[in-house]
Design a protein that fits this description.
With 297 residues, the chain is of the alpha+beta class. The chain has a single domain, classed as Double-stranded beta-helix. Helices cover 23% and strands 22% of the residues. The protein is built from 8 helices and 14 strands. The strands form 4 sheets. It has a 7-stranded mixed β-sheet. The chain has a 3-stranded antiparallel β-sheet with strand order 11-6-13.
């Protein structure tokens, strides 16, 4: 069997229309998917019918699954992360509910699990309930950090090269203060980590990309608070340039998969009270720390 593939943009994303992700995958298809994700960083598998179990099984093809840091606050299966303003019992949650506040935080550019020393490799997200096409927002937008790095002025590359950002799960509370405190155990299991702002990719002939997030901190280290915040805002503004981006307009039963080493993503804010949006995510654990220009690779 051959995958039927359509490019979504020149630089990022393909659509696959003839593969059922709930079935066992052959070694040929596995290799095709691995090559596609390496080259195009994003795949949308159309017309899927996925439950938690089949999502876990499909995700497991690509590595070990992450489990969520907060003890069972948002999900059923421990390997499934609910990206949803709907409770696991199907109730549309109000905007102040911490589970919805976390969804709002997802509208800031990020990669999944940057707060881990080994951040997530792939995320695989299934749209159970998506916004109607006429609604404003709800899309997932991606920005290609290889391309963003390539297009940086040389002076900016030099400035960013030695810098790190602090990524801290607990610091989501600094950005979204209404969230309830983490337990001592939850905090201790996920202490802050730092990652280089310029990322080196050993499996791409040491090509470089940008690597920063805005959902766990809004500063860059190694400079004064003001300079760090100003630089961070500059980066946020820079990566949303449409020439680096692909915006995924969800259709029911889309299953999307992306490479967190290359793409930042965010949800475009929507009316959380008016619309239901329910997605489940399986996340493939990273297999190495983030390498920077001064790492011993
Ligand atoms: Fe995310």
């Amino acid at each position: 069997m051959k995958l039927k593939i359509t490019n979504l943009t020149k630089h990022t994303g393909v659509k696959v229309e003839n593969f059922d992700c709930s079935k066992r995958i052959s070694s040929d298809i596995f290799l095709d998917i691995k090559n596609l994700i390496q080259e195009k960083h994003f795949i949308c598998f159309k017309s899927q019918s996925i439950d938690e179990e089949s999502l876990v099984n499909f995700t497991r093809n690509f590595g070990n699954l992450e489990t969520y840091p907060e003890k069972d606050k948002t999900k059923g299966k421990i390997e499934i992360f609910n990206v949803s303003n709907i409770s696991s019992e199907g109730i549309h949650l109000n905007e102040e509910d911490p589970r919805v506040v976390l969804q709002k935080n997802n509208s800031r550019w990020h990669t999944d699990s940057s707060y881990r020393y080994y951040p997530a490799l792939f995320s695989i997200l299934y749209g159970k309930e998506v916004l109607p096409r006429v609604a404003s927002g709800g899309q997932t937008q991606f920005s290609n950090m290889l391309l963003a790095y390539e297009n940086l002025p040389e002076s900016k590359k030099r400035l960013l090269e030695p810098l790190h950002q602090v990524h801290s799960y607990n610091d989501i509370r600094r950005i979204e203060p209404s969230l309830p405190e983490l337990s001592y155990e939850e905090k201790s299991n996920f202490p802050p980590v730092t990652h280089p702002v310029i990322r080196v990719h050993p499996d791409r002939q040491n090509k470089k990309s940008l690597f920063f997030t805005s959902n766990t901190s809004l500063e860059i280290g190694g400079m004064s608070l003001k300079e760090g915040r100003d630089l961070h805002s500059w980066l946020v503004n820079y990566v949303q340039n449409p020439k680096f981006c692909y915006t995924h307009q969800w259709e029911p039963n889309d299953l999307i998969m992306w490479d967190n080493r290359v793409l930042l993503h965010r949800v475009i804010p929507y009316n959380y009270t008016k619309f239901r949006r329910a997605m489940i995510r399986g996340t493939v654990e990273g297999t190495s720390p983030v390498f920077g220009p001064f790492s011993n690779i």
